[in-house]
Structure formats: C-alpha cells, structure tokens
Design a protein that fits this description.
heterodimer, A: 683 residues, mainly alpha, 6% strand, B: 218 residues, 80% helix, 0% strand
Chain lengths: 683, 218
C-alpha cells in the first residue's frame, strides 16, 4: 500500500512515509481488522468470544478515531494499486463519510461488547465470528471509500458478511434459509442497481473517483438515470417500501448482535449513499427528486410503523420499525432537496439536519433495542410478545435500557428521537410557502404523515414495553427469566445512555452534524440546547427538564407526606366478581392491544381471520369449541412479490422447452443467430 | 505465372471447394462424403499452393503440403476407418437433400451479400473468392444441424473448418506456418476426440444417432 504524502504539519513519519492522522487511523483499522480475523480464526473455542470480541472492539475503536478525525475536517487518502492500470483502490473519507464511519464503528463496538456475553453455539463458531468481523469492517469502509470500485467492494463485503450471519442458525431454524435467500436476492438487486447507476455517472465523468463524478449535471438525462438507479439501489439496502421485503425476514433470523448492526448501521449505508448522490455527486437536484424521496420515505414510514404496531414478534416488530425510521430519514432528505430547489435554504438545511439527527438517533436507540431484544430471547427463549411479560422485575437493567430506547423510538421528550422530529417539524412549518405549488402541497402532507407515524410509534412502543416488561409473565419461559451477563447489559445501557445524551444536549451534536454537511447556521444555546437562528427557533431540553423537575418537586413531596400519613392497606378480594385476575392469560396481550388498530387499518393490513365453531354432538345449539385464528402477512409481499415470483416461475417452465437436450436444437440456435447477425450486418 | 492463369487457378480451386461442399450436402452415403471431403482438402491445399507460388514464398508452399497431408489424407483416413467399421453408412438427414441444396444455395447467396462491401468492384481474384470461404462455413453449419449421425457431424465440422481456413488464407494472403501448424493440430485433436466419443457411443447405444442423446442431467 502506498501513501500519498501531503503537506500537513501534524503528520506522523515512518521512515520515508509520512501519514497524517486520518491515514494513520485508517491504516491502524486495516491492520486491526486483519488481526481480528486472524484471532477469530486461530483462537481456541473456549477463548474465542473474548479474544475475537476484544479484537473487534479495538477495530471499531480505531474506526471511531478515523471517522472522528475525518468528521472534524482532517483529510487523508490511502490508495493501493490494483491489477488494472489507472484503477486504484482509494480510501478518502470526507466529513460526511467520517460521520457515518463513526456511526458504524460505534454500533459495531457496542455489538462486539454485547457479543462477548451473548454468543454461544453456532453464533460463536469461527465462521460466524469471521463473517461478523468482515461484515463490520466492510460497513466501516463503505463511507471511507473515495472511488466507485472501493465503494462497491466494501459494499459487497458488507452484504456477504451479513448474508452469512443471517444463515448462522440455519441448522435449528429452517426459516433462516428462506430469509437468507430473500436477503441475498434483494441485496444483489441493490448491488446491481448501484453498479448500473455508478456506471451511468462514470460514463459521463470519464473517471471512477468520487471527486471526478461531480461533473455530471443533475438535470441531464444521465443525471436523471443515475439518480433513479442509485436511489432504487440504496432504497433497497435501506429497506424502503416496496423493497423492504427482506428486512422483516433477515433481521429476526440473524443473531441479535448482528441484527443490531444490520438495523442500526447497515441500512444507514443506504442513507449515506442517498446523501452522496444528492449532496456530493449532484448537488442542487431538481424538485422531482425531492418529491420522489419524500413519497418513498412517507409511504415507508406509515407502512413500516403500521406493520410494526400489529406484529407480535419482538424482532420482527423492531425490523418494521426500522423501515419506519429510515422512511422518516428519506422524508427529511426529500424535503431538503425539494426546499433547496426553491431556494428555501434555511428550511432545507433544517430538514437535512433533521435527517442526520434522525440517523444518529435511530442508530443509538435501535442498537439498544435489538441488543435488549436479544437479551429477552436469551433469557426467556421466547420472541412472541404474547408469551412474555413481567420481565421488568426479573431483568431490571435490561428493562431500564430497553425502556429508555423505546422512549427514543417513540420520540418522546428528553430523548434523541424527540429532538430529531422536532427539527423536522420546524423545517416543515417554516418551509411552507405559497409560491411553489409542490412545496405548498407536499409539506402539509408530510406533516400529517410524520404526525400519524409518531402516534403509531407511541402505540407500538407502549405495547412493546408494556406487554413485554410489565404485568405478569404469560409463559414459563418468561417466568424463569434472569438478568443477562454484564457485557450484554452494559452494551444495551451504553446505547440507551447515548439516546438520553443526544436528547438532553442536542446543541453540540447538531453543530457537529451541521459541519459534516456544510451547514453553518446552527448554534448551541443555554444548557446544551439547540438553536436554529435562521428559522428563529430554539429547544433547550435540559432547561425544560430542570423546570419540569422543579414543578414536580412539590407534588412528589406532598404525595410522599400523605403516603406516610395514610399507610397503604392491603386489599384481598375474597370473591372478585370476575375482577380478580386468576390467570396470566386473562391479561391484555400484544394482539389484543393492537386489535383496535387492526380494525381501523383493516383495508391496508388485510388480516386473515378464521373462526371455527364446533358444535356439541347432542345438539347443534350447544357449542363445544370455538377456535379463532388470525394470521398477518405483509400485503406487499402477498399482492406484489408472490404474483411476480409465480410469473417468473411460469416463465421458467415455458423456457424449459428451449432446452430439450437435443444437440441439433442447440446448434440450430447458434446457426440462426449467426444468420440473423449476417443479415443484419449486410443490410 | 501470368495474372490470368493465377486468377483462373484461384477460381478453379475455390470453385472445387464450393462444389464439393454442395455435393456433400447432396450425398447420403458417408463413404462418398468422406471421399468428397478428401477432394475438398486437395482443393484447399491447391489454393494455398497457388497463393504461395504467386507470392513466391516457400513458407506457404510448406503450409500447403501440411494442409494436403492433414485434410486430404490423414483426416479422411481417420474418418473412413470409422465409417468402414460398420456396414451401415447411410445417413438419414433431418432435411431431404433437395431442400438442403436449396438452403445451401441460399446460404451461398447470403455469403456473397455479406461480402459485398468487402469485395467492392475489385478485380483481385483472392478477394472475389472470399465469399466461398464464408459459404463453406455456413454450409458446414447447415450439415451440423441437419445430420443425425456422429460421423456426419464430424464431416460438417471439417467443412466448417475448411471454410475458416479458406477465408484466412484469402484475406491474409496466407498464414504463417506456425499458426497453421497450431490450427491443424487443434483440428486433428478435435477429430480424434470425437472419434473416440463416437466409438463409445457405438458401444453404449449400438448406434451413433445424436437424437438418442437428449437426456438432461442436473
């Protein structure tokens, strides 16, 4: 590997080589990744999870350093020659890339810490660890790439590693195979679309480095083609409707530390790719780009949270919630592009800032939620919410981490989710204008979409936390649950700490994010509060929290005093009139909690319901048994993908006639092709 | 050699090539086809020799001897051994000879049409003979798809190869000895391998009809 030297007074010299800090950190990361792979490959089985876990943590830490340096404005470039002349593999993260390296590395670090306590069996095998290390390494290299080839290589490494991880439990769970197949097909589709989009860009730019691609005009035909292909490719990876289909299958099947990285960091690479297109390659895109992104994001947000609100599988619910969150991020990016195309700069920048805030907030809470979900599955052996309950007292640490992360996911105050959605609303409200008809229509609709999404998210996460952690356990597994090991609970707690920290001190965070995309107009105010001077709005959660505490103090004191004066009396009902709950099965369940929603959105969700009544043999007026069954399936899969797959299947059967094994037929094909070519040539 | 004689000789050898190809299409007897193939080999060698004589290059004359040895003697010998091994030397083509001949005529026309921009209005006898090489390729292909017996497939393949060689010699006014040596070895090897396969087929199925080989395996 050769290093191009550049005049930087903070450079580190190694003999003839000089490296600036970013280059040194990236080199360290490459070396640590190689070390981690070696450790995972040779470590004895009993020590593997500790050694490989620590090596992965070291790699992630160097990634955080490299990303942080790039984010703070240092530039660096590592390049290695390839077999092809004039094609070099280049790592050259810019500020935006640095931000996403930090996100990916931080999530990886928590997941690796968690894995030390979590992995066992197939997930602790040599291949699973290697896949995890390569996957997370690819993940950190995608935003560091400085040219198309490196980007695609890292992208493919990420896809392959995660594909292997989805297959980890294939021996015990047959559905993991079908999930991995769906995932592999969709991820390859995404790769092909991105490849085609980059090819379109490179054909005009004449080079493959990112710096050269900026010459393509966004309003040209090639620009439009490249935008469409790249956005479709990145939307597939990001899990947007209707390309989300792999997400609710693959996330639940992967081991929880891997699904945390996939959900919190990998789908973010779709967001990073989209930002690359609209900010770096072709800034100043036309208004229809904004409308496309806005619609994709809006539909995904509502559909994702709607499916999440009615599903009972914990990890599937979280996967659908990922579709919702990424949808919101795309909605914000779309709003930013749309507003910028009408020169509404301040509102556009606020929308972009909201997109980045949503991204880091989602990384923090979704990581914590998936790690928490893994802890639940490990402790109870159950993934179905209808069979959980009472975990709050049995697993207090996990419950605390999960609860805080759920608050973040529901976008309630003093969490990061609230700050992000607040910023998004500010952008929508201040961006409203009567001059441009598309803005005047799109923004109010977007406000409605975000409001509906926020409401449904609240229902979903109340259900998730309330049914899962409160009340009495609904199965033996939940009853026997115990708190998980220290690395697992600490990883989840650190994630939740980040959710609170980002929510309480949004000012400095927003300033860093703003610098990543070149927005200047963001200030810190009060106790780490956020201020957007050009929109004239400010938010100081710390001050609000202190005020709320001060107001709440008298109430707490008075109620404590009154509680002392009237000691609590124990009430035992001798006969409860049906009010006493004799069995845990008489409690609210996740399905019954979501039942009203199911009724309201019946047309969209299309649940399959069966009621089978068996009559007693003596008289058909007496009922012996009533069986009620309800099955929820993804409407888009049933109505969209199944017919498509059946059509392809039929096409395959028909095309089998082309291939009947006769040598003469094959020769005739090539002969006819030759004749046709000759005739066409001679015309 | 005068230009007139040169042109006459080129036309004669090229014409023989085309005529033998047409006769191979027409005849059903494998023995007759092999004999015609030998004549075609002689004609090809003659063509190369004429070229070499005209260009005054000893190398081309050597190449012509190589072609003569391989295509007029060795390959027909190998093939006729295969044919003589069984009494039945009748080919039952998938297309009757009349239709095949019409197709061959159409293919020759196509070859001339394709070569029109190349030939232009030049009087150069080599350029004027190029379409015959293309026609040979197409007719060889036609033989491949209409004949059932493995030996006929080999004959079709050799006609096709003769066509490629003709085009190569005429357009490049001869190919270097080393290249021709390599190509000849290739053809010899292909024929020997196919010969062995045909023998195996004979043993396994009791016949060499390719229509028996239609079972697909995963």
């Amino acid at each position: 590997m050769s290093t191009r030297t550049r005049p930087d007074h903070r450079s580190i010299a190694f003999g003839d080589w000089t490296m600036n800090p970013v280059e040194a950190a990236l080199t360290a990361e490459l070396l640590l990744a190689a070390l981690a792979c070696a450790v995972a490959a040779v470590a004895p089985a009993s020590m593997r999870r500790y050694l490989a876990g620590i090596a992965t943590i070291a790699m992630a830490a160097s990634g955080i350093v490299a990303g942080g340096l790039a984010l703070s404005g240092h530039s660096g470039r590592l390049s290695a020659p390839t077999a092809l002349p004039t094609v070099n593999l280049t790592l050259a993260p810019d500020r935006l890339g640095g931000l996403f390296i930090v996100i990916a590395s931080a999530v990886t670090l928590l997941a690796a810490l968690y894995a030390i306590g979590y992995v066992h069996g197939a997930a602790d095998s040599r291949s699973a660890w290697l896949a995890f290390i390569l996957f997370t390494f690819g993940l950190q290299m995608v935003p560091a790439a400085g040219d198309i080839i490196t980007f695609l290589l890292a992208w493919e490494l990420m896809a392959l590693g995660s594909g292997v991880l989805v297959l980890t439990d294939h021996r015990t769970r047959p559905q993991a195979r079908s999930a991995a197949l769906w995932y592999a097909v969709m991820t390859q589709l995404s790769f092909l679309l991105i490849l085609a989009g980059f090819a379109a860009l490179a054909s005009v730019a004449g080079a493959t480095t990112f710096d050269a691609l900026v010459t393509v005009s966004p309003t040209s035909t090639t620009g439009a083609l490249a935008f469409t292909l790249l956005i479709l490719g990145f939307a597939t990876k990001a899990g947007l409707v209707p390309l989300h289909i792999w997400l609710p299958r693959a996330h639940p099947e992967a081991p929880s530390h891997a699904s945390a990285v996939m959900s919190a960091a990998m789908v973010k690479m779709g967001v990073y790719g989209t930002l690359l297109v609209v900010l770096r390659f072709m800034p100043g895109g036309p208004a229809w780009w904004g409308i496309v992104l806005l619609s994709l994001g809006g539909i995904s947000a509502v559909y994702g949270i709607l499916q999440a609100s009615v599903t009972s599988d914990v990890k599937r619910l979280l996967a659908y919630s990922t579709t919702e969150n990424i949808g919101l991020i795309f909605l914000a990016i779309g709003a930013s592009v749309l507003l910028a195309s009408y020169q509404l700069t301040a509102a556009s920048q606020a929308a972009l800032l909201a997109a980045l805030l949503l991204a880091i907030s989602h990384a923090a809470f979704k990581c914590s939620l998936f790690l928490g979900a893994g802890a639940i599955v490990a402790a109870t052996g159950e993934r179905n919410l209808d069979r959980l309950g009472g975990l709050g007292v049995r697993m207090p640490w996990t419950a605390a981490a999960f609860g805080v992360a759920a608050l973040g996911a529901a976008a309630l105050p003093v969490t990061s989710g609230f700050v992000a959605e607040w910023t998004l609303f500010q952008s929508f409200i201040h961006g409203a204008t009567r001059d441009a008809i598309s803005v005047a229509v799109a923004l109010p609709v977007a406000v409605a979409v975000v409001a509906l999404t926020a409401g449904l998210a609240l229902v979903t996460f109340v259900k998730l936390y309330g049914i899962g952690f409160l009340a009495r356990p609904r199965s033996q597994g939940a009853d026997d649950a115990h708190e998980v090991s220290h690395p697992m609970r600490w990883a989840a707690l650190i994630g939740s700490g980040a959710v609170i920290a980002l929510g309480v001190f949004p000012g400095p965070v927003a300033q860093v994010l703003a610098s990543a995309v070149g927005i200047g107009d963001v200030a810190t105010i009060g106790l780490g509060g956020l201020s957007l001077p050009s929109l004239g709005v400010l938010l100081d959660p710390m001050a609000l929290a202190i005020t709320a505490l001060v107001c709440a103090l008298p109430v707490v004191v008075v109620s404590a005093l009154s509680a002392r004066r009237h000691p609590r009396r124990a009430t035992e009902l001798p006969w409860g009139c049906g009010g006493a709950r004799v069995s845990p099965r008489m409690q609210y369940t996740a399905t019954s909690y979501a039942e009203p929603l199911m009724r309201v959105f019946d047309d969209t969700l299309r649940p399959e319901q069966d009621v089978v009544v068996t009559h007693a043999t003596e008289s058909r007026y007496l009922v012996a048994q009533v069986r009620y069954r309800q099955k929820l399936s993804d409407v888009i899969e049933v109505r969209g993908y199944r017919p498509l797959l059946e059509f392809v299947d039929r096409l395959g059967v028909v095309s089998r006639r082309l291939q009947n094994g006769s040598v003469h037929r094959y020769l005739t094909f090539s002969f006819v092709a030759l004749i046709v070519v000759l005739i066409v040539v001679s015309l | 050699m005068s230009d007139n004689l040169y042109a006459q000789l080129i036309s004669l050898t090229a014409g023989t090539l085309l005529l033998t190809a047409a006769l191979i299409v027409w005849r059903r007897s494998l023995r007759a086809s092999v004999r015609l193939l030998a004549i075609q080999g002689i004609a090809l060698a003659g063509l190369v020799a004429v070229l070499g004589w005209h260009e005054r290059t000893i190398e081309l004359v050597l190449v012509s001897l190589l072609v003569l040895g391989l295509k007029a003697v060795l390959l027909p010998l190998v093939l006729s051994r295969n044919v003589l091994n069984h009494d039945d030397d009748r080919e039952v083509p998938r297309l009757n000879p009349t239709a095949s001949l019409i197709f061959a005529a159409l293919l020759t026309m196509l070859a001339y049409i394709v070569c029109r921009p190349w030939m232009g209005d030049t009087d150069d006898p080599t350029s004027r003979a190029v379409p015959i090489g293309i026609a040979l390729v197409l007719i060889g292909f036609l033989l491949l798809i209409t004949r059932r017996r493995a030996a006929s497939q080999l004959i079709g393949f050799l006609v096709l190869d003769n066509g490629i060689a003709t085009v190569a010699f005429l357009t490049a006014t001869g190919v270097p000895l080393i290249v021709e040596l390599g190509a000849s070895l290739d053809v010899l090897l292909v024929v020997l391998i196919l010969q062995v396969l045909t023998g195996r087929m004979q043993v396994k199925f009791g016949g060499t009809d390719l229509d028996d080989l239609t079972e697909l395996k995963d």
